[in-house]
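hey so u asked for the seq, here:
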Amino acid sequence: MRALPGAGKRMAESTSSTSTPVEGLTFEQALEQLDQLVRRMESGDLGLDESIAAYRRGAELARFCQGRLADAERQIQLLDEDVLRNFTPAEPSGSTT
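ran it, structure tokens below
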């Protein structure tokens, strides 16, 4: 059985990005990995097994990013809970109405 050209390089790329547990990544790192995976999958250069592994890793990264965004949204809601109120502009100084 012959190896496909570039297959070793693709396997090295895929194992280096999947070896880090998702929980050990920052949001930005996870998003960058997800973006790279999507580009590789869209290029059509991945074999079947690589595509399945990339899809699995992409789903894991997407869930992680969604969770981090939901956490950030909850934090913002808690921080703004007492701050958000209807805005009433003050009268400009020197106004005679």
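Confidence is low (pLDDT under 50) at residues 1-5, 7-16. The helical segments are 7-18, 27-43, 48-80.
lmk if thats what u needed
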